[in-house]
């Protein structure tokens, strides 16, 4: 009996030694396999750092070009709004007034492609008396955005719209834009590059280095439009002037460049 127990103890000890040896072998293999991955990660980080540093080498400057021009298109925000005891009645008034408004725009040479619905809403209106909510009717509104390409006719378009829409008409805003800014951008871009080149040459002279060729160039373009004018009352008053006067002013196209040059 004792001999049997002794044999079992010896076998168990031998099995433990075998298992420990296997675990050490797996751990060593895992460590050896993971080494290249760590090396690869370090190499990738170093490469990214070198790329970033190479972009910053040399002489970097910014340049700006500005070109102003008169706008050639007006954008109107207008429409009609009506209130009635029922949605159907209010909607009927709006549809009739909007039809007259669209006819007026067409008569003034505004094409269908330049008229786009910007808002359509139907909602109840309430009055509050002695803490109670009382329904007073339903409001239906239909607003459109209109591009007037003949900017000299913008005032006439507004006046005729007021006449067509009557008391239901609302003129919410007017703004101005330039339909095609391609030529203006090119002119401003040339000014921006010349501005950057001049700055780079001045810095190189002051620093006592030789300016090389540009190796990195970025550009940004903006056209800072003036904010649209909003009529506070929502409806233009016609008694003050026979023709609504419109002053479009000027708009400015701005091009900015960032350039990096080599230096010796």
Automatic annotation (TrEMBL):
- Pfam families, per the entry: SIMPL (PF04402)
Task: Name a single GO biological process.
Answer: DNA damage response
The record, for Gene3D superfamilies, names: Protein of unknown function (DUF541), domain 1, Protein of unknown function (DUF541), domain 2
Q: What is this protein called?
A: DUF541 domain-containing protein
What's the source species' lineage? unclassified sequences, metagenomes, ecological metagenomes
């Amino acid at each position: 009996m004792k001999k049997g127990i002794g044999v079992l103890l010896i076998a168990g000890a031998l099995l433990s030694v075998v298992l420990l040896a296997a675990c050490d072998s797996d751990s060593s293999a895992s460590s050896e396999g993971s080494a290249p991955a760590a090396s690869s990660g370090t190499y990738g980080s170093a490469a990214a750092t070198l790329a970033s540093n190479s972009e910053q080498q040399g002489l970097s400057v910014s340049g700006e070009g500005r070109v102003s021009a008169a706008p050639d298109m007006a954008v109107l925000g207008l429409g009609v709004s009506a209130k009635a005891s029922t949605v159907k009645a209010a909607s009927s008034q709006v549809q009739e007034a909007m039809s007259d408004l669209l006819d007026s725009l067409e008569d003034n040479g505004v094409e269908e492609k330049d008229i786009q619905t910007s808002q359509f809403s139907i909602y109840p209106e309430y009055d509050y008396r002695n803490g109670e909510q009382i329904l007073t009717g339903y409001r239906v509104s239909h607003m459109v955005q209109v591009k007037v390409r003949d900017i000299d006719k913008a005032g006439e378009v507004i006046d005729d719209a007021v006449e067509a829409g009557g008391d239901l008409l609302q003129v919410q805003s007017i703004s101005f834009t330039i339909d095609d800014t391609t030529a203006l951008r090119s002119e401003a871009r040339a000014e921006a590059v010349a501005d950057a080149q001049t700055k780079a040459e001045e810095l190189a002279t002051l620093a006592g280095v030789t300016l090389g060729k540009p190796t990195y160039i970025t550009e940004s373009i903006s056209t800072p439009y003036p904010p649209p004018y909003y009529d506070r009352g929502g409806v233009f008053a016609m008694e003050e002037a026979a023709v609504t006067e419109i002053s479009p002013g000027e708009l400015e196209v701005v091009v900015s460049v960032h350039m990096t040059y080599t230096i010796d």
